[in-house]
Amino acid sequence: MAAMLGRSEDPRGRLALLTAREREVVSLVADQRHNEEIARILVISVRTVEGHVAHIIDKLGVADREEAGRCWRSAQQAQR
């Protein structure tokens, strides 16, 4: 299905679709931060964080925030 949508099977390949702010959010999600913590760190509302997380999940084609965080961590480790 992902190939039919023009998406890479590996969600790490879709990280480039994220905005700079979404990359900030997913990096904090990968650090297992809660939405309230992320909002405080980035000086944005919790609702805005929730929106970013929803967009991240959609763009990466993953099931949930935990999978998005694993994808981010995996990509960061691959760069080392």
How many helical elements?
4
CATH topological fold name: Arc Repressor Mutant, subunit A
The H-and-E topology, N to C, reads as HHHH
| Rg, alpha carbons | 12 Å
What gross morphology would you assign?
globular
Structural class: mainly alpha
Helix content: 55-70%
The share of residues in extended strands comes to under 5%
Mean pLDDT: 89
- Tell me the CATH architecture: Orthogonal Bundle
Q: Considering the protein shown, what is the CATH homologous superfamily?
A: Winged helix-like DNA-binding domain superfamily/Winged helix DNA-binding domain
> Largest beta sheet, briefly?
none
The number of domains: 1
Termini separation (Å)?
A: 31 Å
Instruction: Tally the beta strands.
Output: 0
The first-level CATH class name: Mainly Alpha
**Low-confidence region ranges:** 1-7
Can you walk through the features of this model?
The chain has 80 residues and is mainly alpha-helical. The chain has a single domain (16-78), classed as Orthogonal Bundle (Arc Repressor Mutant, subunit A). Helix content is 60%, strand content 0%.
